[in-house]
Design goal:
The chain is an alpha/beta fold. It has 10 helices and 11 strands. The chain has a single domain, classed as Alpha-Beta Complex (Spore Coat Polysaccharide Biosynthesis Protein SpsA, Chain A). The strands form 2 sheets. Strands 1, 2, 3, 4, 5, 6, 8, 10 and 11 form a 9-stranded mixed beta sheet that branches. Strands 7-9 form a two-stranded antiparallel sheet.
């Protein structure tokens, strides 16, 4: 038998004890009936939870990778990206809903803009309101403002407003951005070969800031493409309202540890991208 041609897109989803969300995501992928060739990888960071068996039985077109332990978000994605054969790698979180023709818009955009390494769709809440899914590079105070009551103070609100690009509203046209939310990103594989994969020193959070920053450093572009729309059931699990939540909230601890690593890694290095520009 002759080998099949390489797929256009390699989808990657990393999960941890979310069988219900995975079932809905993959059903949505089937209904989307993609108009391009693709392969799909599911990386299960908790293979004992039954998700892998369910996917193998109900969605045999998905390639399941069982991690030996919970390796986190970046390392989990890397397990699949190293096997991916597609021209593009599309990361999809379990808590997304896919609609027909929306991923095709991202693929078309990447085909037409060969200098773009990473692109992200518009993410929307179930009620139709737009989520903040692209950002400026953060300063060291942003994690504190976003995860504590200090973000409700005037200075904190102003800093968050700037970080979330709310001064750029309406976000209805494709434009360059510093950072894309990792919940849904399409990545050019040839760019990844130059940029490198996710830094596995992050267990969870800040991976997308790191890889987007490295893309800009290598003169690739990072672009928000709101014409492509997905629904994201986003929950901010790492928010802390009181200091002792740092001890009781595992995502909050991971967020703080990742932030410390990120700011130490890029300490005193200038932002390689400073000007948001619309894309023609």
């Amino acid at each position: 038998m002759e080998p099949k041609a390489d797929p256009k897109v390699s989808f990657v989803t990393v999960c941890y004890k979310t069988p219900g969300l995975i079932r809905m995501l993959l059903k949505g992928a089937e209904r989307a009936n993609f108009k391009f060739s693709y392969e799909y990888f599911l990386v299960n960071n908790a293979p004992e939870d039954g998700t892998s068996q369910m996917v193998r039985e109900k969605f045999p077109w998905v390639q399941v990778i069982d991690s030996t332990r919970n390796v986190g978000f970046g390392a989990g994605n890397n397990l699949a990206i190293r096997r991916a054969r597609g021209q593009y790698v599309m990361l999809l979180n379990p808590d997304l809903t896919i609609f027909p023709d929306e991923i095709e818009k991202l693929v078309k955009f990447m085909d037409e803009h060969p200098d773009v390494a990473l692109a992200g769709p518009g993410l929307f809440n179930p009620d139709g309101t737009r989520q903040d899914s692209c950002y400026r590079q953060p300063n060291i105070m942003i994690p504190l403002y976003r995860r504590t009551v200090f973000g409700r103070l005037p200075q904190g609100r102003r800093a968050i407003h700037h970080y979330l690009m709310r001064d750029c509203q309406p976000m209805d046209k494709a434009q360059e951005v510093d950072v894309l939310m990792a919940s849904a990103i399409i990545m050019r594989r040839s760019a990844l070969e130059e940029i490198g994969l996710f830094d596995e020193s992050y267990f969870m959070y800040f991976e997308e800031m790191d890889i987007c920053r490295r893309a800009w450093e290598k003169k690739w572009r990072v672009v928000y493409v709101p014409d492509s729309k997905l629904v994201h059931y986003h929950q901010r699990e790492s928010r802390i309202d009181w200091p002792w939540h740092i001890i009781t909230n595992r995502p909050a601890r991971a967020h703080i540890i990742s932030a410390l690593y990120y700011f130490r890694k890029f300490w005193r290095k200038p932002n390689p991208h400073k000007l948001q520009r619309p894309i023609e």
